[in-house]
Amino acid sequence: MFEAMRAFHLISLGLVFAATMGCSESDRSRQGEELTAASGAGDASSATVFDLAPADYTALERRATSGDGEASFRLSQFYSMAGGSDGRSDDDLVGGDDAVQELRWLELAASQGHETAKFNLAVTLARSGRDCARGLALMMAISKESPSSDTRKEAGYWLRDPSFECGAK
To answer: Which of 90, 106, 132, 153 is buried deepest, with most CB atoms within 10 A?
Structure first.
């Protein structure tokens, strides 16, 4: 499932890249904002995650450290999908500065109440082996307490998936 989501994001990135060829940095940033607004929710889309100008990054960081869970989540996605500051991806979430930064911002977003961040944190902790017991506990809480019935169902799916068990690789 993760591979399918990653493929979707990469295809989305390709479409956004094609649509912004020849655009200035400010045009690309504005187009990313327009795509986010058009999505209706302000979720971290590939358009607004992959192409962060330094000023946009600084603004997100400021909002995130002031309690904005969505900004924290966007920064976690920046390090996850875009390879963050060093331009590479840490697929295994084990090493490298990007993986550390991704987890830092994901933890903060989850603590700020961001539902998707909570879910992603549970998966990351359990599947990466960083803290499997905590990941399972978070997923159990999500399966019972999430305001979204779809998220509760998805959490139940993960809890039944043998690859999500502690020690499973």
So the answer is: 106
Q: How far apart are the first and last CA of the chain?
A: 15
pTM: 0.64
Q: Are 49 and 17 in contact (CB under 8 A)?
A: no
Distance, CA of 99 to CA of 97 (rounded, Å): 5
Report d(CA 113, CA 145) in Å as an integer. 12
Residue with tokens 């450290």: 65
Sign of CA dihedral 65, 71, 74, 78: negative
* Domain assignments of the chain as residue spans, ordered by start: 1-113, 115-169
Q: What is the pLDDT of residues 85-139, one digit of tens each?
A: 544 444 444 456 788 889 999 999 999 999 999 999 999 888 887 888 899 999 9
